[in-house]
């Protein structure tokens, strides 16, 4: 399955949500699974993004659907990037 990097920032509403219910982060991960996206790794970060997630999805349309679903809730802003593993890149460059 293709890999994607999801960079996210909480909105004010999202910050309130996880302050009162920090487990909501893992609940959303479970929701992503039901939408066909597997969370491979997740990190809370300091700096320009609140979270960095490495996810797998069937294709660009699947990840776009999930991104739209999450963004529509008003608790998070997302930037999603397709990721290419280094071995595949090297093979393509040969």
Share of helix, binned: 40-55%
CATH class: Alpha Beta
CATH architecture: 2-Layer Sandwich
What is the CATH topology classification name? Alpha-Beta Plaits
Biggest sheet character: 4 strands, antiparallel
Number of domains: 1
Strand content: 25-35%
Q: What order do the strands of the largest sheet run in, or round the barrel if closed?
A: 2-3-1-4
Terminus-to-terminus distance: 23 Å
Q: Determine the number of helices (DSSP H or I, runs of at least 4 residues).
A: 4
User: What would you call the shape?
Assistant: globular
Which segments are poorly predicted (pLDDT under 50) over 5 or more consecutive residues?
none
**How many strand segments?**
4
SSE order and pairing:
Blueprint: E1 3-10, H1 12-20, H2 24-34, E2 38-44, E3 51-56, H3 60-72, E4 76-83, H4 86-93
Summarize the structure.
This protein has 94 residues and is α+β, with helices and mostly antiparallel strands.
What report would you give on this structure?
- The chain has 94 residues and is α+β, with helices and mostly antiparallel strands.
- The chain contains 4 helices and 4 strands, in the order βααββαβα.
- It has helices at residues 12-20, 24-34, 60-72, 86-93; strands at 3-10, 38-44, 51-56, 76-83.
- Strands 2-3-1-4 form a 4-stranded antiparallel beta sheet.
- A hairpin with a 6-residue loop joins strand 2 (38-44) and strand 3 (51-56).
């Amino acid at each position: 399955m293709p890999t994607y990097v999801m960079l996210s920032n909480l909105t004010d509403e999202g910050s309130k949500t996880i302050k009162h219910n920090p487990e909501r982060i893992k609940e959303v991960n479970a929701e992503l699974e039901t939408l066909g996206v597997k969370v491979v790794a997740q990190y809370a970060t300091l700096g320009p993004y609140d979270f960095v997630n490495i996810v797998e999805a069937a294709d660009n349309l699947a990840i776009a659907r999930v991104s739209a679903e999450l963004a529509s809730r008003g608790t998070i802003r997302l930037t999603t990037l397709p990721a290419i593993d280094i071995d595949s890149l090297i093979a393509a460059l040969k």
